[in-house]
Amino acid sequence: MSTSSGSPESWISSFCSLLGHEYFAEVSEDFIEDDFNLTGLQSQVTMYKEALEMILDVEPEDDEDDEDEEEEDEEDISGDGRDGLAGRHERRHHSRIASDLSVIESSAEMLYGLIHQRYICSRAGIQQMSEKYELSHFGVCPRTNCNQTRTLPVGLSDTPGEDTVKLFCPSCLDVYVPPNSRFQTVDGAFFGRTFGALFLLTFPDYDLTKSGGEQLANLTRTDESLNINGMWARNIAPGLGKGRVYEPKIYGFRVSELARSGPRMQWLRKKPEDITVLDEARHFAEEDGDSDDDDENMNMSGRPVARRRRPGNARVKRQGQNGSPMATEANGAESEL
Amino acid sequence: MLIGEAVYIGRNNGRSLPLALGPSSPQCAKVPHHRPSIQPQGQSKSAKDLANIPSKSRIAHESSALSSVISARCHVQRVRQPRPLSPKLLPSTLSRPVPHPASRRFRVLPERTPRQTNHPFDHRPLSARATNMAGMDDFVSDSDSDYTSYWRDWFISSRGNEYYCEIDEDYLTDRFNLTGLNTEVQYYQYALDLITDVFDLDCDDEMRETIEKSARHLYGLIHARYIVTTRGLAKMLEKYKKCDFGKCPRVMCHSHPLLPMGLSDVANQKAVKLYCARCEDIYNPKSTRHSAIDGAYFGTSFHNILFQVYPALVPPKTTERYVPRVYGFKVHAAAALVRWQNKERGEMRRRLRKMEVDSGFAKVDGEDDDEDEEEEDEEEEMMEDAMNHNPAAVVQYRGAGEVATLQ
Fold first, then answer.
1. Where are the annotated segments for Disordered (chain A) (predicted)?
2. What is the residue extent of each domain of chain A?
């Protein structure tokens, strides 16, 4: 039967400890065993059943042909104590041909990746990823003006086989190629498009500037409790804005915008000095009055009139009351795919 | 071979030199020096300076004069004073086989140099080296000219120094180019001697370390000046085209090559950074061995001057960017910022159009608006789609299909 999830010998933990798989979280077996979480994956992965069994380290039960042999194997294992993972796999599948095994292995990786995409958007998964984030497992932003902000792994597509994993910097809201080439083999779909942004919405209280020097933290402390567009004002692209846009200079003189080689991309790193400019809903309300129905709806959805919030992690608690977030995640991912 | 060259110079009065002698010579020959009129004076002055240094042995004088003559190999149309060559040299060089020109640069130290080190810092005075060479006087200058640019060759090819280009001997020996550097570098003269491969001071290891360190520092400071000259720019451009400085990590820049730059022109302030001309932003070097290089060795102006000099190399700009999404919906906070930034861009483009300056964006004007409309359609579609499939979403819709967290 399955080994315990904490065992270092499980397929999942050995997969996550492979070189280049440092970004992966270990999906809990409870999550995989819930069929609901796997909705729709059967059609995407070849030899789905075998792959799933491999991930869960379960002996194939329905294979009637080699049932007896499997039982023997189990006895063997219990007799030997704990063998290496590879050895056990080999013995378990010894009736299958080698190529078959490699197909299963690769589809197990694919299946794990797709489950992982859903898992890291679930409550338990995103929590696990936040622990990895705090330990800087995903590296830091290469942009100089981001001051080594920690990044998050994201995909640019939810369909496997399209692009490799990228790093999303919450400080400049841009994506970067991981510095190490070993991540060039990791599929971006195993992390998905949603994770990066969802992480920021799930943990709004993360101080994104924490790793980036004390200066900035002091600067932004003044508007700490200002909440704009559903995010803390200090957490809206802290790496952008005045003083963090590169200004090309020649011998101390700024290069003119009118020059052929003058700056053209500064908009990409700009941010309004007064962040409340971005509070479009409020500006709209101020212009058109409050009589509008739509406007009231917006009010309910957290019209951010620069108000104070209760201290504590109120948002996370509220999310907990909203039923299982997993349900949404699975559905959402399906609609994407 | 070098002696062969020197002889050649002597014969032609240094007026025209064979182009195919060094690997870099054809390219160098095309580019005129930035101050050709001042050069010859500076050259002769520097030779005089060298002659005044008391610690130099006679051999060193000869070799320095010789090496500066040799360095002229890549410049055409430069009038030079014919240098007095040792009469002994002529017969010996005539009898020596001339190696293939291309092989010279990559040759290891001559085998007859008794103490092989992994860099050309010879630990013994020149006179000692000379006596070891089987008493062949006529080989002394020869071995020294083999040393030409050895220190620089070694320095540039050593690990972590991939960003540097090789400074021409000419540039180094022109004192005008080094104005003011003597106050910045400890043991300035020795360091310069080491860089130009005429170093012959007998001193202890500690002192050598210090001088070696000074030499690296001095090389960096000269490098910052050199790379903004016409020839320096051309050299760095070659390296840029070969992606020697790495590629932009930003996904939307699609591996555009980078350029090294500093955030300060003063040494020991900021490490080197990498500039991407496509997104016009600066990044930290990937590897730690590069992030230890002083940014002042490249300067704050170099990369901008490069694009001023070669405006055709300015890459086309795109409005392509990453937009954070949750299940296909833009995140409101980020999307509002994107809208604001797009407005800024629109204003900039309008300003430029008013001044009739090319904005450099790949797309034609007016396409911007269409694009926005398309985007909005797409958004609406997506929203409907998600509404149908995903009624239990934790998110709420606001504006044009964005999400904000519940309050």
1. 59-93, 285-337
2. 11-119, 126-225+237-270+308-337, 272-306
